[in-house]
Amino acid sequence: MEPFTNDRLQLPRNMIENSMFEEEPDVVDLAKEPCLHPLEPDEVEYEPRGSRLLVRGLGEHELDEDEEDYESSAKLLGMSFMNRSSGLRNSAAGYRQNSDGTCPAPSARTIGVCVCIILLAVAIILAIYFLPRCTFTKEGCHKNNRPTEPIQPIATNGKLFPWAQIRLPTAVTPVRYDLTLHPNLTSMTFRGSVTISLQALQATWNIILHSTGHNISRVTFMTAVSSQEKEVDVLEYPLHEQIAIVAPETLLEGHNYTLKIEYSANISSSYYGFYGISYRDESNEKKYFAATQFEPLAARSAFPCFDEPAFKATFVIRIKRDEQYTALSNMPKKSSVVLEDGLVQDEFFESVKMSTYLVAFIVGEMKNLSQDVNGTLVSIYAVPEKIGQVQHALETTVKLLDFYQSYFEIQYPLKKLDLVAIPDFEAGAMENWGLLTFREETLLYDANTSSVADRKLVTKVIAHELAHQWFGNLVTMQWWNDVWLNEGFATFMEYFSLEKIFGELSSYEDFLDARFKTMKKDSLNSSHPISSSSVESSEQIEEMFDSLSYFKGASLLLMLKTYLSEDIFQHAIILYLHNHSYTSIHSDDLWDSFNEFTNKTLDVKKMMRTWTLQKGFPLVTVQRKGKQILVQQERFCLNVKPEIQPSDASSLWHIPLSYITDGKNYSKHRSVSLLDKKSERHVFFFHRQRVYGTLLTWSRWVVGSRRAGVINLTEEVQWIKVNTNMTGYYIVHYADDNWEALIKQLKINPYVLSDKDRANLINNIFELAGLGKVSLQRAFDLIDYLRNETYTAPISEALFQTELIYNLLDKLGHVDLASRLVNKVFKLLQSQIQQQTWTDEGTPSTRELRSVLLDFACAHRLENCSAAALKLFFDWMASNGTQSLPTDVMTTVFKAGAKTEGGWSFLLSKYVSLGSEAEKNKILEALASSEDVRKLYWLMKKSLDGDLIRTQKLSFIIRTVARHFPGHLLAWDFVKENWSKLVQKFHLGSYTIQSIVAGSTHLFATKAHLSEVQAFFENQSEATFRLRCVQEALEVIQLNMQWVEKNLKTLTYWL
Ligand SMILES: [Zn+2]
């Protein structure tokens, strides 16, 4: 699934122990020095504890952690394990032996006491192990069961419900579903019948499966040997959305059975499940449309099923429809039959084996454009009046399908691939196998009104959903705790495929920007590991769909690919896909495939677990000492209570370091691998050639009582820049002299460093200023070189960072200071702004730069920008909107017009009547940027109603309103006032709710707002207050307060 939103995030910090540079005055103890950064918002947040990943051996061969790290380091370094430090060996030996090296002989009494204790302990363990798991089941205990809840579930009919857990038992597994549905789009109801072929994996009496919102009229049961149907009772337990069928006889292990359930239900009025919408066509006639969105937990609301991703089965689907509609499902249509009542019944071929959340069907009036690609019919569907906007999507899909089939060396397995633009859709898109669903704005492209950013969006979203056909559909995560396996991979492949086949779009700039934003969010204490063990409730599952699963997952894969080389990375994932096709897997299965390929010369699992099982990321501190470079790591974490060290202060990562220097011999990428330890900070390095291999140097630097890692250069250098092209997921801090050297280099000739490196330096220094590691003044000193910058990525990042500060000052009423800040930034970028023209000329990257610069200039009324924009707007208005405008600056032009009374009304009239979603989006952003709060309130209200402005746009409107001064308090009031409706429409924990909470609170920076936000969510439910997005919002407000407290005086003096 592709969420829809792209905003900004926030952060706190923490830090761990020692600095290795005791004499280094620049290293700040974060436990004392509050950190700071103004935070912008965007989505989500979370939770707990990183875990230590080392697997311990037993007995004589057990290693302590030091030894294990040494062993793996040695393996990594290609060294013999026997050559490790003798000092270490001695200390490990001392741990287990007497001083003479022998084990003492125990007395008989000691042995007796020990035996008693052991027997008692075993009895307690057995009791704990068996009792709770068997309490409510007739089947006995299943290996994978979770602990039972301390309540006795009672079904709706008052009888005991035979299963107490949220996860289903594994005694019975579905093999095939045969589903017939008859939706009525005017009454918004449907009737359904599902026949499920089952296999018993264990003897049991009960069949437990999911079902919610169904009025079940009849359930019958049949064994494979007797074809006689027996009507059976059904028990319902709505709290867990489960039903239980008590079989008339024991289900025997290995035997097959059939269950048939007839039911009726309402078509959903939310965006979840089997949902219905109405829209008006170009002649203003009301039309109806029904579609599905099952991920993650809504297949159960469309038909009774085993609704967990690991229960894969095949599906035969039949849809009864009125003649004027088209029905689509995952598979090609097998037959269409006209029934006696005039309805048409479409039957689709039996599907491949797949998870329930990937099942999909659509009924509506649509047209399509198709093309055959080596036996697969690719079709783009839209409502009839928008069929003219599908050509770009078709061409893009054909190229991407070809690329993926070749890259993965696995053919797309279905005979057809449909991509459908749905008139109202909450997410960005969804990867249902063979039937991809999209918002209209993420699939349709209109050459006259779509900007280069729109083109990129459509291309990226198609690339993402197509990648899911392999990552997610063919190979699926076992459970939602590993959703990053789906989303991280699809996101990574989205950028990777664009870079390969649409290189002109410079999508690397977007990926870089996404990594910056993701790390901002991941540095919060409310962050969470992307592979989390504590995911069970629907809210917890929803919350896993956040930007960390998507972008941190993708960032880690980028880091691994860069480290291993593109070739090895590709072959390892081919192996993974081949090994696990049509099954479901854990994260470790992915790493095992890498390890299988690397043949144990590198333990990818051990390395990558340090990134996926703990939250946050490392701060790497670098100091030059002549030809030696000292390096250490600690967690980069903002912290609202600096006096409290986080419990995982000793977090460690296996970091593939890379660097470049100004030296003659170091101008190319040099990769280094670093391993660290909790206690003594042993750091190992080796240069990497091609893969993960050749040891060039390994040494330690002893500073005081601690040891640090060292890179030995062959010559002295002026500067070193670590994390080349920011392919690594970490932030780098340098000693004073190196920062100064880098700043000097940027001023003399910035192009010695790549645009990615320049953007990376800007990002890092502002984030470090937030942490209190460097002064804000030094950060501004670094971006002083921007006068000579011509690339998009560094300018965009500088504008983002300074806008964060501006927004905070502005919302707190420090108008003069905010204005001085804008002037300072403007002076840096003045010549670039003056060079811009109001056209669509240039490469995609320069066109995007134009959008960013002119939007900045017009927003702050600089360089007569608004006058130029207004002239274009009034010309366009005089032509009744028929005169074409340059697409990349269209939003800026509309924003200028929306600030005028007549302009706003004219734009609204166009919004209602236009057919291009790309143009409508630009208008909507302009409408929501108005300075008239009555208009802003009206917009939000109308979007909640969903008629004039679709409710799918509401979170975007709220975020836009909240960003600007006139609306930032209003947006929060609106959220409070309509919270229950918002949760009903978008459901608790969803990406949309995350986005609304962050978007409406992220610019608060006062104690009064903190108390208010806290009190509001506390007064909702406990589940609401516990939401990570709520905890993140509170954390961000506190960090904003700290930032202001720390920096306001300095800024007043210095700006
Ligand atoms: Zn996705």
UniProtKB/TrEMBL annotation:
Q: Which keywords does this Swiss-Prot/TrEMBL entry list? A: Acetylation, Aminopeptidase, Cell membrane, Glycoprotein, Hydrolase, Membrane, Metal-binding, Metalloprotease, Phosphoprotein, Protease, Signal-anchor, Transmembrane, Transmembrane helix, Zinc
Binding-site positions, Zn(2+) = H464, H468, E487
Gene encoding the protein? LNPEP
Under the heading Pfam families, the entry gives: ERAP1_C, Peptidase_M1, Peptidase_M1_N
Q: GO terms for biological process?
A: proteolysis
Q: Which organism is it from?
A: Bos taurus
Cofactor list? Zn(2+)
**Which superkingdom heads the taxonomic lineage of this protein's source?**
Eukaryota
Record's protein name? Leucyl-cystinyl aminopeptidase
